[in-house]
Structure formats: structure tokens, C-alpha cells
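Hi all, posting the design record for the shared folder.

TITLE: backbone redesign
STEP: 1 of 1
STRUCTURE INPUT:
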């Protein structure tokens, strides 16, 4: 096999690997494993990361007054939803989310729970 032909094969394999990875990322971010709603107190919301800046938050879920609250950590990809959550810090909110399993990198969010809608409750 000539060196030119070998280089062509290597480049073709590399291009195929990139296409397969891109399709996998697209599929992981497009389909959800589960969807649901969580309600609680928005305790923390911030943009963080060294290279890939992602919006991450924490909701305190409490089933009854005086009980130790459970923490629900989530990520946000939509800038409009991030702005709504930033304005709602410290308030009670209802979050509509989708759980996306298998997202290959933390550049899309640190958790597998992606908030798609937020409603501030009184």
C-alpha cells in the first residue's frame, strides 16, 4: 500500500469517527430517558466551567415543613431559561426537565437533568 493511499484511509477513518461521534452527541441531546417536574426552593444557580461554561443549579425539595430537604441538581442549556432562573434565585419554582443519559462530555452540562421550563410559584 502506498503512503498516499494509507493517508487517504486514515483520513477517511478519522472523518467517519467524527461523524459517528457527532451523531451520538446529537442523539443523546435530542432524546430523553425520562421527563418530569420538580418543585422546590431554588438555592443555587451559576455559570461554571473552565473551558465549557455551563449553567448549573440546585433545587431544595421538601416534602413537609421541618423535614431535611433533598437536593436536586440540574443543568440548563437554553439562555432564556437560564435568565429566568437567575432572576428567580431564592424563590420557590417548578422546573420541567428532561433526563438525558449518555451525554458524552460535561461541556453540555454537569448533570443528566436538563431544565427546559421554569415557573415561579407564590
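Okay, here is what came back for every position:
SEQUENCE:
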Amino acid at each position: 500500500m502506498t503512503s498516499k493511499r494509507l493517508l487517504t484511509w486514515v483520513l477517511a477513518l478519522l472523518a467517519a469517527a467524527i461523524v459517528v461521534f457527532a451523531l451520538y452527541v446529537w442523539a443523546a441531546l435530542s432524546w430523553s430517558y425520562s421527563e418530569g417536574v420538580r418543585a422546590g426552593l431554588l438555592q443555587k444557580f451559576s455559570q461554571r466551567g473552565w473551558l465549557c461554561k455551563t449553567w448549573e443549579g440546585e433545587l431544595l425539595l421538601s416534602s413537609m415543613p421541618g423535614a431535611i430537604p433533598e437536593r436536586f441538581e440540574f443543568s440548563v442549556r437554553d439562555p432564556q431559561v437560564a435568565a429566568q432562573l437567575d432572576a428567580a434565585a431564592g424563590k420557590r419554582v417548578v422546573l420541567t426537565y428532561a433526563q438525558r443519559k449518555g451525554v458524552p462530555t460535561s461541556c453540555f452540562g454537569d448533570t443528566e437533568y436538563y431544565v427546559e421550563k421554569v415557573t415561579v410559584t407564590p
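COMMENT: The two ends are 72 Å apart (CA to CA).
Let me know if anyone wants the other runs.
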